[in-house]
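[09:14] KT: can someone run the structure on this one? pasting the chain below
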Amino acid sequence: MRLTGRALRLTVLVGEGDMWHHRPLATEIVHRAHAAGLAGASVFRGLEGFGASSIVHTTRLLSMSQDLPVAVVIVDDEPRVRAFLPQLDELVSEGLVIIDEVEVIRYTGRTAAR
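[09:31] RB: done, structure tokens below
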């Protein structure tokens, strides 16, 4: 797949403890993005954060470190990203889903090992 120029970055912010049918929600989002043929997805674990609940979760307090913020970031062209949004409607009941325009400068993968 070749991806350069204008694209969309889809970011899904959820809690580390959020689940989808006994599976971490971030994992489910990544696997669905893969199945949908999106260019790629990465999951980043936050050190501290709060959302609509106004509860601060941090790695500094053992009692609050159970539901740290997680960001799933997906970049692809606009039609593919927009086609994926209905799946997020099904999956994300609490969290934040944002889209911003980006410019892809370079997108390359590894060559397959023989």
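[09:33] KT: thanks! The chain has a mean pLDDT of 88.
[09:34] RB: yep, looked fine to me
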